[in-house]
# Entry
Amino acid sequence: MKIDPSILDLLLESMNEGIKEINTLIRGSTNRDTVAALARIAHKLKGEATVVGLVSLSELIIRLEDALERMERLEKIDKAHLLVVANHLKKIVKVCDHLRKSSANARKKTPQTKMINKGNTSKGISAALQVLAMNVSRSCGKQVRLNLDGFDLSDYSSVHQHKIQDMVIQLVRNAITHGIETPSARKKNGKAISGTVAVVSRRTKNGLVIAVRDNGGGINLDQVRKRLVVKYDHNVMSVAKLPTEKLLRSLFLPGFSTLSKQEKHAGRGVGLDLVKVHAESLGGKVEVAYKAKRYTQFLIHLPIKRTTNVTPLRTRKQLRKAMPKAANSTMVNLPVLVDIA
# Structure
């Protein structure tokens, strides 16, 4: 398995921050809020492991997620249960250390390779997202093109860039696993067999808006109603009367998923909860819109300021061009450089 060393360094830096957060949480108070926070961080780590494409690392994080899910079902959670989390974390750290050494060794062999610095972290995030789309689409047996032509975070601080990276990783994974259909299903519906996911950033007078849109099958509201009844014990009649807006807000409930069975990249109901919590931590919000059999779009509104004045404001026409259309496209295929096997 090979990957660009700069992308690897960027992801390891982000994963290291997540690991520090877990260490802090398991040393603090023991309650359900702690477990929910741990689950969000574990899901973030899994998204980053998917970018790296290392199966062993992903499997370790999945085991951590499984342990946290079992804890959420317990009547009482104590410190002994958090020791289980610590043991899983040690194994994850060991693999990350191996990856870090592999990256360092690669740099010794190719000293001309440049580190990603604060000035070009945005490019590293875009490259990482392309690798993510390639790995997730292959794993799901789908053909997906990721359009990042309208996505640029270079005007924003590294702190904001990393937060946005976490959110966009979850939404791109979500778009590929839930939104984009299989090639056979798309062909049956008269679509190009390759789907498209577009990520667009736009400055506004109130801050920054990030749009993640796919040209897949949209959202099945009947599935949303069913999960509210089955998993959350909602009354059938009251759920049937819920307006579309409230049904869409249900997607962000902790543990909510339209899948009845967990899959490698979806089914735990943590991803959208993570996006919502991250957005709110920056004073923002998330909106969702869809059209059946056409598209799903998530909008992240963030009241954050730029740190530079480099990138010109994009016009609505330029933003529309970056959005996915039902056109023929090919799978993303990026060069990979560092051996991490």
Notes: The first helix runs from residue 5 to 26.
